[in-house]
């Protein structure tokens, strides 16, 4: 009798366990890429977006430093100007206390008209001889009368004649008498002559104005100050403007001021 061959069943459990152990020790390399070629990220919406680093903004300080320098420069400049003004005021106060300056005085003593004619072409030609007295009441201050002066005689806004004062030095407590010749010509003077005649007939006086602009330099002791301008305005009331006739000055008053 033929012997029966025993077939031993294969241990499937052990083989499966060995296969699993083999798979754990040597993971299978996927053959299909997780991310398709040409794509930078996965199309799956559940994946997180790539991390983006935020670069902080750094504020620079140089503009603030420039503003600070400008503010300091402005403060120093204003302080220097204020200091100079303060020193100038103190110096002026000391000079006033030491020298006690007073304003000069002026008066019109005489007015003589040598020419006051209306020509055939209605032009008025006038020549005045004016005597001006200038008084310097200061004990320690002298006055240098510089060139470039201008003196004129006016009637109702019309200049009749002009001239200039001579250059001279007026010492302490000095009185100087000046004889000045003024001449001028006015065109279309028919209306002016009519107004003068009417003024004389109604009031018996003719109001004139004499204006003087005189550059001067004040001398205090041994110091000469900067050049300033004397401005003198005098009002004259005369009885007539006839040529070669005695002219009486009924009233005379002068105002004085100086400018830089």
From TrEMBL:
Keyword rRNA-binding set for record: no
Q: Which InterPro entries match?
A: LEA_2, NDR1-like
Q: Which membrane topology term applies here?
A: Single-pass membrane protein
Q: Which residues form the Late embryogenesis abundant protein LEA-2 subgroup domain?
A: 131-234
Region annotation (Disordered) maps to 1-21
Q: Where in the cell is it found?
A: Membrane
| Name of the featured protein | Late embryogenesis abundant protein LEA-2 subgroup domain-containing protein
